[in-house]
Amino acid sequence: MELPFISLLPYGILFIISAFSLSYLINKHKHSRSSLNNLPPGNTGLPLIGESLEFLTTGQKGQPEKFILDRMAKFSSKVFKTSLFCEPTAVFCGAAGNKFLFSNENKLVTAWWPDSVNKIFPSSQRTSSQEESKKMRKLFPLFFKPESLQRYISVMDVIAQRHLASDWEGKQEVSVFPLAKTYTFWLACRLFLSMEDPEEVQKFAKPFNDLAAGIISIPIDLPWTPFNRGVKASNVVHKELLKIIKQRKIDLAENKASPTQDILSHMLTTADDDGQCIKEIDIADKILGLLVGGHDTASAAITFIVKYLAELPHVYNKLLEEQREIAKTKTPGELLNWEDIQRMRYSWNVACEVMRVAPPLQGAFREAMTEFNYAGFTIPKGWKLYWSANTTHKNPECFPEPENFDPSRFEGNGPAPYTFVPFGGGPRMCPGKEYARLEILVFLHNLVKKFRWEKLLPKERIIVDPMPIPSKGLPIRLHPHEAA
């Protein structure tokens, strides 16, 4: 699963320099003997910190595409060099760049994450990314494939209805983003861990904001830093998860739990090729990653769907018509099923267009496993490689008039291959893509049946850190539909 690229928070130049000086000197020596005469065009920025601050601040100003698109225009529309987080970096652009990186996973390139990831996900230090990828490809598709997820649609429907009843109904105004996070986290806890009590879920959710903020952060272990808070939050969540795992093993042995009831049981009862079950600490890591990835990106997508439906009444009306047609086929109390989801074509086109305009996953890093040539340039071994959704999502060659909101782009065969990449691509494409589709559509069905809404802050600023987030949480005024 692609982890969301969580930006580094600026603590001042002094701390950045002290954190990265050694890394810079090591990398400078490492690459001094490489074929440096034919590197991609670009600018490596200031000593030590490179162009990291500009890369981060454009996102914090709500224009994450500006850093990438400006350099594509100035240097190359295919690949350019920069320096991010004290690492020499080649940014691969466009559909061709996406295809190259996604197609060469574990051949020419491999996943790369900063040291902070290793502190929060300890098992990542003990397993190579290639071995990890193979294990995950074996484990997750069995649970996340559409045939397996179909049986959970009714559970999603129940949770969406309960969430709207407890947190939306009877209120004149709500803030969408925190409530979207509540819904997606509750759903993840139910389907991954069979955790149902809302109060228990809420208590479990408390450390996750600190944990997520520390995943990719400056590794300065001082009490006031996101890294320090993230590691502490990770330790708290790991301890809770290990308790849950140990109890589940007992329940499975006593037939009090089913091997197929959720992904935790699935992981505990699935052996690798050598017949060995996954270690408890590794299961805790994987569940932790799923809980982070399973609700952060989906909650951002839901928030922006609500935003654009408020701004575009004609889109809302067409989506409402589709959902009402589905509702007409249901008897009172009947829950959604797989056939209902398949009829939500326009609703999913709207969601896809939202994820094109405001991709929850901005991009991700790779590392060159060997020196290779791309687009006529040399990429040295060890260089970090970055792909960005915005090199295609905001590119008029891929999406004509990209500033226009147009769900019809996804009708028929949809966009060209490798141009629409909100879930990544290749072997590391997010395995939860279908899960995200279901949780978004089930929520939308229940929301639009109950409410229209209007934004309370028409010009609310959007920040990207690392996902697009309304700076005030997207407060809206609700207008319940009159009972028929």
TrEMBL record:
Location(s) in or outside the cell: Membrane
Membrane topology per record: Single-pass membrane protein
Residues binding heme: C430
CDD domains tied to this protein: CYP90-like
The keyword Glycosyltransferase is assigned to this record: no
Cellular component GO terms held in the UniProt record: membrane
Any single Pfam family the record assigns to this protein: p450
Cross-referenced Gene3D superfamilies: Cytochrome P450
Cofactor(s) this protein requires: heme
Membrane-spanning residues: 6-26
Keywords: Heme, Iron, Membrane, Metal-binding, Monooxygenase, Oxidoreductase, Transmembrane, Transmembrane helix
Annotated GO MF terms: heme binding; iron ion binding; monooxygenase activity; oxidoreductase activity, acting on paired donors, with incorporation or reduction of molecular oxygen
Key word Transmembrane helix present: yes
GO biological process, one term: sterol metabolic process
Family annotation (InterPro entries): Cyt_P450, Cyt_P450_CS, Cyt_P450_E_grp-I, Cyt_P450_sf
Family: Belongs to the cytochrome P450 family.
Protein name (database record): Cytochrome P450
Organism: Populus deltoides (Eastern poplar)
The organism's taxonomic lineage, starting at the top: Eukaryota, Viridiplantae, Streptophyta, Embryophyta, Tracheophyta
